[in-house]
Amino acid sequence: MATTPSQSSKPPSNKELPLDDVEGTIGAAVDITTHDEVFGDIKQDGPNYRNVGWMGAIVLLLKSQIGLGVLSLPFALMTLGIVPGILCLVAIAAIMTWSGYCVGVFKLKHPQVYSVVDVGEIMFGRIGREVFAAIYCIFMIFVVGSAIVGASIGLNAVSLHGTCTAVFVAVSAILGFLLASFRTLGKISWLGWVGLVSIVSAILTVTIAVGVQDRPALAPQTGEWDKDFHVIGQPTFLQASSAISSLILAYAGVPTYFSIAAEMRDPRLFNRSMFISNAIITSVYIAIGTVVYYYCGQYVASPALGSAGVLMKRICYGLALPGLYVTVTIYLHLPAKYIFLRFMKGSRHLNSNSFVHWAVWLSCVFACTAIAYIIASAIPVFGSLVGLIGALFGTFFCIGLMGAMWIFDNKDRRQTVKTLGYRALFFMNAFLVLLALYLMISGTWGAVQDIIDSYNADGGQSAWSCKDNSNSV
């Protein structure tokens, strides 16, 4: 059978690779993968880890981004003002697109990479691997924790606080464990479609609802009311830092890109998927954030799904709940997969269906779930938790690390390449490293202060609380 041009050469990460890289294209009769730099020898009777096409990758990339961050966008724009907010959003989108491009290039140069932990080992040796492993797993599990909080808010909203919030948190953690127990991204990529449709339909519904209502749900329902819409906001330094951190979290799926690229049939097509997904994401973010803030003004809720009244809040959260659980699933699956690979690397059980294989895998998923549950119960303030994750981890992994990766791979060219373009790229990436450090410090300070203020506020959220968290702003 004749092969297409993309089938004529082999990617560097495999000895033999099934190059039916476009899902649904003609002619997929090819040999299965026999060896992979990450997953080792892959057998016919074991899990096929390399089974994500470039269109499936788009869905996984979209779902890794569109989730928690978009729910806090209108509140961040309210804090910054519409013009500075949109400018910051576009700037962050450009930086994250460059970071995504760096991921695709770095993966092809270093085919043994599965996660940012492997990047740490390549750049800084064994110490770098262990430090990055700890930070990566903590980051992912914190995202799971915030998604569990979001899901508990949704269950409270739909059920009109049908039971103690701590119960909803526990139920969400258990469901996340069950869904994340699928062993390969290829088998849960269909969940990406479910989650994407779920979240997008929910935010589109709330956007339309706030546009047709006389006033937002949190505004006074009788008499005069002031939208207090700001073209340019007047936040304090800490408020602005926390808002920018929330914008960063809206794109903080970048660390998952390595794992998605590693499980693609042809990693050379990763950047195609990434550019398409980032264009879609940025368009959705600007539209949703602008419209919701314009109609709600100072009365926008965080998460934004609570901005349109009790009935619409129940409808929107009903639509969003599958997407929130998909976020839990993906971000729980990835750190568990990394820990599993560390335990099983070089073992015959890695690519088998043995009892040892399943026992280790389920133990990894359970351990990550338990830690995420504790985080969700201890810090039940959605907006502040989102800001903390974006500042503490998103800046490091999504901005600073990607700039450092480019410098690492191109440092030797400083002696031979004297072009203006190379110098501009070098200084740009050095600036990104410094920018990430600044945003990490300022954003974390702001987010921690927000959490303290919430605990101290009259009627604020507290750890392991039974209080209805769907009414918080």
Kindly describe this structure.
The chain is an all-alpha fold. The protein has one domain (53-220, 227-471): Amino acid/polyamine transporter I. Helix content is 66%, strand content 1%. The chain has 13 helices and two strands. A two-stranded antiparallel sheet has the order 1-2. A hairpin with a 3-residue loop joins strand 1 and strand 2 (40-41). Helix 2 (68-80) packs across helix 9 (270-296). It is globular and about 70 Å long. Residues 1-33 have low confidence and may be disordered.
Name the descriptors.
473 residues, mainly alpha, Amino acid/polyamine transporter I, two-stranded antiparallel ribbon, disordered N terminus
Global mean pLDDT: 81
Share of β-strand residues: under 5%
Number of domains: 1
N to C succession of SSEs: EEHHHHHHHHHHHHH
CATH architecture classification name = Up-down Bundle
Tell me the Rg in angstroms.
22 Å
Figure out the total of helices. 13
Q: Helicity, in percent?
A: 55-70%
Major sheet details: 2 strands, antiparallel
C-alpha termini separation: 60 Å
CATH superfamily membership, which one?
A: Amino acid/polyamine transporter I
CATH topology: Amino acid/polyamine transporter I
The stretches of 5 or more residues where confidence is low (pLDDT under 50) are 1-33
Task: Compute the number of strand runs.
Answer: 2
At the first level of CATH, what is the class? Mainly Alpha
* Rough outline: globular
Biggest sheet, spatial arrangement of strands: 1-2
Please state the structural category.
Answer: mainly alpha
Pfam families: Aa_trans
InterPro entries: AA_transpt_TM
Keywords: Membrane, Transmembrane, Transmembrane helix
Protein name: Amino acid transporter transmembrane domain-containing protein
